[in-house]
Amino acid sequence: MIQFSQVTKRYPGGHEALSGVNLAIEKGELVFLTGHSGAGKSTLLKLIAAIERPTSGMVSVSGQNVGRLPQRAIPYLRRNIGLIFQDHKLLFDRNVIENVVLPLDIAGLDRRESLKRARAVIDKVGLLKREKANPVSLSGGEQQRLCIARALVSRPALLLADEPTGNLDAGYAADIMTMFRDFHQVGTTLVIATHDDRAITVLGGRTLQLDHGKIGEAAA
Amino acid sequence: MIGWLRHQKHALAAALRRLGAHPVATLLTALAMGVAISLPGGLYLGLGHLDRLAGDLPAQPEISIFLDAEASNAQKQAIAVRLKQPDIAEARYVPKDVALAALSEAQDLTDITAGLTQNPLPDAWVARPHTASREELARIAAELGKLQGVAETHLDSQWAERLQAALAIGRTGVWLLAGLFAIALVAISGNAIRAQVLARRDEILVSRLIGATDRYIRRPFLYVGALQGLLGGLAAGGVLAVVGTLLRAPVEHLAGLYGSVFHLLPPSAIEIVAVLGLTTLFGWLGAWLSVTRALHQVEAAR
To answer: If both were cysteines, with which of A54, A195, B15, B257 could B224 make a disulfide (CB 3.0 to 4.6 Å apart)?
Structure first.
């Protein structure tokens, strides 16, 4: 599903975040990206979602050469990818359900159908009682679950999560990892950047170790 | 197609919410636009009224031929014969007594004319030539002026022509002014939208990350611009209605002094629709320019 061949990403200023990375992730796989901070985990996820373009090499997602995708095609790529951010990127000018419904609005779905689907996803992440609340009033763990709900609502085949449990205490983190395992079991491809080793041992799956922009595989 | 309509509906609803969320800013922008539009709009209406006033006057050019007080009967006869030539469509003799009576009646000068010991007016002919060309008219007037017994000829169309020429300058001025204020409208709208785009930076960035096209992001802003333009047009209508109400009594008073009945008329439905359509269009255009530019900035600053 995802393929990197000889991918190098150099940021303006000369910092090389990824150097000659090769990797392949199959459909339905659960993959952890680990490594010290600054090892290139976030950059790798951004290249998959075409948030950044590779300096050289080829990134392909579902057979599409993402690095060469024209600007106007990128939104349609992103609609098939659920993005989960460490800083949540929620909108605080609207309530919980309006945050979750946004991807469906963007896709142009019928409003009533959208709200029904949004409510179902909010229920799944355990926030149904807070659907009218402003995200500001949610705890860190609840905000992260809201971010996950928004990533899931359009039923993407691929979920990318950047440090999803980074700011959370152990109990919340375990909840969220359990949720990821459920998605994995229904066939969603997951790529999770984390340095939470406990989660990796609990969930299993493949681990890709990044070290100064180079990749090494470690058996989990 | 249904998806497209749904997007339009969402965008329109979002635009109305955004305008409603900041009523004071919305009203101030509408007022700024309204004042800007009311200047060329008011001038246009004023010129229309002057045009109408000029239109009530005889458009048919006439030549007045004033006879010398000492003209002999033979000379008068010769003049009458000349005015039966085919280049004159109609000629009418106005003896000085009739002229004086008409003057005192029309201008309500009975008191003054009654006190005159002698009629100061000359006998006259009023001739209407077939031609309307200015050179021909001038030639005929000059020829008649050279006849024996004619004191003076006067081409009555001259002042009407001058008025028409002045009005033509005025009309050109209105269009130039309208063009300038259209640019002002685009600028006002663009500025208001730019501030809104920057205020919604986070929403734009997040929307992009979850698959929003630029068109999707731009759409509500375009609706805001168009609606703001429409409100500006309506505000201009309000400004002109107030101005018209305030001017009505003085204008009618002035017209009364000239012995005329003259009313200020509101613009026609077509003119109103055209102005509202144009202000909506220019509001949209300002929003488009501004949002396209601001989106590039948001992208670059990411």
So the answer is: B15
**Which pLDDT does position B60 carry in this prediction?**
66
Distance (Å, rounded) from C-alpha B154 to C-alpha B139? 12
pLDDT at B302: 54
Judged against a pLDDT cut of 70, whether residue B301 lies above it is answered with no
Instruction: Provide mean pLDDT across the span B180-189.
Output: 92
ipTM metric: 0.87
Q: How many CB pairs under 8 A join A and B?
A: 52
In chain A, the residue whose alpha carbon lies closest to the alpha carbon of B11 is A105
Task: Decide if A119 contacts A56 (C-beta within 8 A).
Answer: no
Which CATH number is B63-155's, of 3.30.410.40, 3.30.70.100, 3.30.70.3040, 3.40.720.10? 3.30.70.3040
Q: Is A40 left (phi over 0), alpha (psi -120 to 50) or beta?
A: left
Kindly list the domain boundaries of chain B, sorted by start residue.
Answer: 2-57+161-301, 63-155
A106–B210 C-beta distance less than 8 A:
yes
Q: How many CB atoms lie within 10 A of CB A119?
A: 17
Q: Is A203 within 8 Å of A181 (Cβ atoms)?
A: yes
Q: For residue B14, what is the nearest residue in chain A, using CA coordinates?
A: A105
